[in-house]
């Protein structure tokens, strides 16, 4: 079995025995806050008891943080579980996705027999979602999925366009899911949450995984109409979020400044990493997220070559609309970015 996502350190260590600089996953560049780690450790004292199956305290804390009601929140074992539960709850006949975008949307939808249709993003437009997508939102589409900032392009979708898409979805009776998992590391604000009250067709995907760097604890959530949240709860087992994960999530909610600190670092380092990649002959898509999409034309084995030097990249060969010479790299702290550029330069020089 081949893992199509980043972060597969187990496989990587079969190739590289030394220390690996993992730039294949997109996390807060400063790592998890100490308070969150402490909360998760303290929760281990209670592992003899089942966790709260309804995540009541965590939903209350998220509600306060995001300005919604607890009834509008579903907590999941990572954002991926929320995606799969949404697919099972809606079981759309047809869905509209962009290409390229996160592959897990399609992976979940095909499991329920959905006809996945694709709005192809144009490289000459930096893979932006434009108003051209409106023409593709037609029956029998029952679900539209957008990601802002998009993975792997890092491009934001404007709020104005998202509202136009949302109105179009209302016209045809479709649901719009907006993946905002990377948004807190891209810009300030509440995202599309203020529109939930007026648009029951809207569902937002969020996660602590990226913004607080805790992928090993698996903690994502969705915001939507209470009726849809109830359906998500019905499509899966109880106790899907562990006690340590719930405790970590509560601690995250007490640290709203952590994503802000991450954005400051990213805003300083992203241009430097872009400049370095460009200097080495890469074509870089100017993104707003904590990662960059770049192309090294004709080089399809860069991931394997760099791994032998101790650096793990995300190959984008499996993204629709890209190809084997496209890669995604996480924007990290200065020393990691500099090390990556030195190793990449040495590899390209031969």
Secondary-structure map:
Blueprint: H1 9-12, E1 21-22, H2 34-43, H3 56-66, E2 73-76, H4 79-90, E3 94-99, H5 103-110, E4 115-120, E5 141-147, H6 159-172, E6 175-179, E7 202-207, H7 208-211, E8 220-223, H8 226-234, H9 243-253, H10 257-279, E9 283-285, E10 291-295, H11 302-307, E11 311-312, E12 314-315, E13 326-330, H12 334-349
Parallel strand pairs: 1-11, 3-4, 3-5, 5-6, 6-7
Antiparallel strand pairs: 2-8, 7-8, 9-10, 10-13, 12-13
Helix pairs in contact: 2-9, 3-9, 4-5, 4-8, 10-12
On the 0 to 100 scale, the average pLDDT is: 95
Would you count the extended β strands for me?
A: 13
Give the DSSP E fraction (strand runs of 2 or more residues). Answer: 15-25%
Low-confidence stretches: none
CATH architecture of the largest domain: 3-Layer(aba) Sandwich
Largest sheet: 7 strands, mixed
What is the name of the CATH superfamily of the largest domain? Type I PLP-dependent aspartate aminotransferase-like (Major domain)
Main sheet: strand order: 2-8-7-6-5-3-4
Number of domains: 2
Please tell me about this protein's structure.
By secondary structure, the chain is α/β, with parallel strands linked by helices. The chain has two domains: 117 residues, Alpha-Beta Complex (Aspartate Aminotransferase, domain 1), CATH 3.90.1150.10; 220 residues, Type I PLP-dependent aspartate aminotransferase-like (Major domain) (Aspartate Aminotransferase, domain 2). 37% of the residues lie in helices and 16% in strands. A seven-stranded mixed β-sheet has the order 2-8-7-6-5-3-4, with helices on both faces. The chain has a four-stranded antiparallel β-sheet with strand order 9-10-13-12, covered by helices on one side. Strands 1-11 form a two-stranded parallel sheet. Strand 3, helix 5 and strand 4 form a beta-alpha-beta unit. The model has no long low-confidence stretch (mean pLDDT 95).
